[in-house]
Amino acid sequence: MSKGRIVLGLVTILVGAAAVGIVAANPVHHTEIHTRSWSFEGFFGSFDRAQLQRGHVIYKDVCAGCHAMNLLAYRDLQDIGYTEDEVKAFAAEVQVQDGPDDTGEMFERPGRPSDHFKAPFPNEEAARAANNGAYPPDLSLIAKSRAGAGFLGHDGADYIYSLMAGYKEPPADVEVPEGMYYNEAFEGHQIAMPPPLSDGETSVDEQAQDIAAFLTWAAEGNLEERHRTGIKAVLFLVIFTLLAYTVKRRVWANVH
After folding, report:
1. 215 closest CA partner among 62, 91, 25, 56
2. Is 248 in the same domain as 133?
3. Is the pTM of this model over 0.70?
4. What is the dihedral sign for C-alpha 39, 41, 43, 46?
């Protein structure tokens, strides 16, 4: 055996040993995404309005302090079963900047149904400063951005549910730095967001499902309309196929 091959063999052994040492020092823990049965999945799926309203309350009371939903307007909440007066009341709970007025000054006024959800921070820098450098993402499209190959993106809901319910005590071989939390559904398992949900009148599991459904509706507000359009298209194709087959039989009936 040549000296070159011997050296190459030794290098290969050393690199392999180093890789094993790295893996041993940094054990791999796979993310855990749990699947749930959602009312809106499947060809005939539709949103549960009561669940969406519960999810909205969770967002308003828990998530809105850090996470914006810039693409959603207060009037959109009528789509999940709230009355016009209830939507006006939700909007009026916040003060939004408007103007300029006749003197050229900006001013604050109560929110209106046409206003978009008020962001908790004026800019990204302020958001990071209030969250130890971490930037809370906008939740308007979070369900779509986290969706994989699942039908109509319902696996985005699975991810949100799993994340909200995924806070656990870290395994013995995992060290979590101060200010971070162990979450089995988060990539890398270390997340800066404290556990947002806690058991109360309903369990964390139920709350996680409710907020996941609400955020899916926010990202897929036209999902039910798409379902209806799809059903109509399939029915049209079925009827068209039957008519075409009937015409073909009549045209070729006397041809042998």
Report:
1. 56
2. no
3. yes
4. positive
